[in-house]
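Subject: Interface between my chains keeps coming out wrong

I've been trying for a while to get a sensible model of this assembly. When I model each chain on its own everything looks fine, but I need the whole thing in one frame so I can look at the contacts. Pasting all components below, labels as-is. Any help appreciated, I'm running out of ideas.
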Amino acid sequence: MKNFVKAMDRNASGFAYLKQKFSSISEAKIEEGIFVGPQIRELQQDGNFQNSLNEVEAAAWNSFRKVCKIFLGSVKVENYRDIVNDLLLSYKALGCNMSLKIHFLHSHLDFFPDNLGAVRDEHGERFHQDISSMEKRYQAPPDLRRKKSTSNLLSKIKANTKLPINTVLEIPPPTRLISRNPAWVADENVDLKEEWRNRWSNLAIANKDLVEDPNTKPPGYNLPRRTWSTLNRIRTSTGRCNYLLNKWNMSPDQNCDCGQIQTMHHILRDCPRRFFQGTLGDIHRCTEEALEWIRHLDIPL
Ligand SMILES: [Zn+2]
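Reply #2:
Try treating it as a single job with all components included. I did that and got this:
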């Protein structure tokens, strides 16, 4: 949908009709082709839109509608191969940018099983399972996970030599802008855990040495939220101690009731009224004594 709208003739009647029909949507969104499902469905049933398109646009629009129908319905259409091919050709005629996704769709033409809709449901179920088991793991930052997922896609494509997209990947198009990172320049063998470990070891943050491997869950993960958050505030040396509250203009006084400046370190190590007898490592590992101390701490960190 997005690729189609972006390639439409800005001065022709089709685009004008789009702007008029969705007058409540900002022009920028329309130009970028950002529509939600119900809007796309509404447009697909709108004969007037169809009539306002020029010949090339109408051909592409028709192919798009057909592809939507076969992929979103659960009935296999005999000639789906031709339909997807038509989409590619008519989009090409329109001058659309072909994203890797569309090429991938094309490459997989021969691999669709008989009942597409049912498979989609299975995929949904599978996806849900994958996601829920993934959430249980301790995760690397999003940009690293994106990199990993691109590398997975690439190695999956390359492993299947029958896919037509491989001929494109052998001689990839030249990169025009250095700011762009097309998928084909990506590394196929990304070790997500290793990369996350490296990034973690180069970070400049307080007490980072407590965590040896950021891929593993830190201890105390299952504690009640209040204990868990206090624990992490001590780990990161950032909490509602008077010194920081004062720095944030939230308290007139930076001193502890014992008379010294109340930093996180002071509360944990030096405060005669409440210091912890163990080490920061004990707190991190959630020893019984540490949890007991956190529960009885009279300062709400
Ligand atoms: Zn004190």
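Reply #3:
Confirming on my end. The chain has a mean pLDDT of 81.
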